[in-house]
Amino acid sequence: TLPLSIWKACEGAGMEEKDSLAVYYGKNFWTAPQGAPAQAVPVDWQFTWAGHLCRIPALYVSDAGLTLDVLLFLDSGAVRTFCKKYAGVDGERLTPLEERMLEGERPIPEASFSPRLINGLPVEPCASSSFTWVPFVRRERPDAAVDAVRAAYASLCLPGDCYVCHRVHAPWPRGMQTAVKSLSLEVAAGPRWMPVGREFAVNEVSAAACAVPFAHPVTGAKHTLYVNELAFLHRGPTPRLPQLEEGWLPVIAYEIVPPLPAGEEPELMETGLPPIECTGPVGVALSDSGPGPHGTKPRAACGWLRGAQGGAVHMALAGIHAQRGSSLRYSFEV
Fold it and tell me: What value, to the nearest 5°, has the Cα angle with vertex 14 and ends 9 and 17?
C-alpha cells in the first residue's frame, strides 16, 4: 500500500509508449540490470478476479525461468474518492492507530499471483514484487523503473486508470526447455484488515472490571472484550540475546465474548504506539491456564517496553485480521 503522506490529489502527466521493456529473471523492478534481459513474448491475456480486470501483457523468457507482469486494475472512482477524502490529511501527523484505521479504507485488494503449472508441469514461484500506480497522486520522487513499466504498457491503460503491477517469477520445470505453450496461474486473496478502533485504559488494580463492547466491522454482531489481568513482565539481556533492553513489558490477558468468527484474529496495540507482533495465546507468565472467567480461552497482548512497572496502560482494539482468502486458478495457452 502507498504511504498516506502521498495520497494527495494531483493530476499526473502522460507518457509516450516504448517499444520494449528490459525485464530480468528473479529481479524486482528496481534491481540494477545484470546480464541480458529476458525475451518478451507478447500475449495480452485477460481475466477477472474479485471484480477486477487483470491483464498479462507478455511473458518474459530467460534461460533460468519465466517472468510475467500482472496488471490488476483498481476501481478508479473508489480510489479518487479515497484520495479526495484524505487529500488534506498530513500523514506525518497521524497517530499509529489512525493510520491503522485508514488501512481498512484503502481500495487496494491484497492479492498474490503465483505460476503453478508451465506446460502442465508443476513449478514453485520464487520471487515477486509490486507497485501501485495512481495517476492523480503526487509522487514524492521520480521513479525511473516505474516510469519504464508504465511506458511499456501505456497502450493497455486509459489515462485515468489506477492499477497494481505485480511482477512474478518461476523457474522452469525440470527437464523443460524455454518454450511456453500453457500456463496455470493461481491468484490468492491476501489477509483482510477490518478496522475497529475501540480504545480503553486498564490498570493492575481494576483490570478484571474492564469490559469493552464493540461491534464487528463487517457483520455488525455485538462482542465484548473482557480484560482478565494486567501484568508487568520483567525483560532484560540474556546470554543468547545480550542486546535486549532492560525494562517492564505490560501484558494483558483478555477474552472476546462471543468469540470472533473462525479464522479471524484481533489486533491490540498501545494507543499512540505502533502495533507489535505479539498478540497470541496466553503464555506461562500469566496466571491463566485453562478457560477464562468468561468461558473462552484467554489471549494475550503486549505493550511496549518501559522503564517502570505499574500505572495505567492505554490500549486499543485496532481491528480484526481475517485469514488469507480462497485461491483461484486461471489457465492460458500461447
Answer: 145
